[in-house]
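**User:**
If convenient, please work through this fold.
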Amino acid sequence: MEKLYKDRNWLNMQYIILKQSTPEIGKICDVSHVTIYNWLKKYNIYIRTLSEAMKISHNKPEYKKKMREANLGEKNPMFGRTGEECYLFGKFGKEHPAWKGNTNKRKNGQN
C-alpha cells in the first residue's frame, strides 16, 4: 500500500489547503515531522515560514482553548488582581522574585 505522504496531491491538500502542520501530518501517517518536511521539499511544495506557521497554529480552536485554560480562572495567581492586590506590587530589586542580582556592571568591572 502506498504511504499517504508520498502522494503529492494528498500531501498538498493536508499542508496547503487544510493548513495542517508537519507534526500533525506526521502523526496521521505515523512518521516523523522531518519525513513530512523532506517530502514537501521533494515535491517543491511551499514550506511556511515560522511566522506563518505560528499564525495558523495560534488560530486553531484547540490552541485557543489550551491558552484560555492556562491563563484564565482561579488557577492563575494573577486572576482578577490589579494594582495593590497583585503580589508583585511595589516589589523591586532584591524583593522581586525574578531578581538575579545587579547586572549593571561598569566596563572596568567596578560597581
Q: What stands out?
A: The radius of gyration is 23 Å.
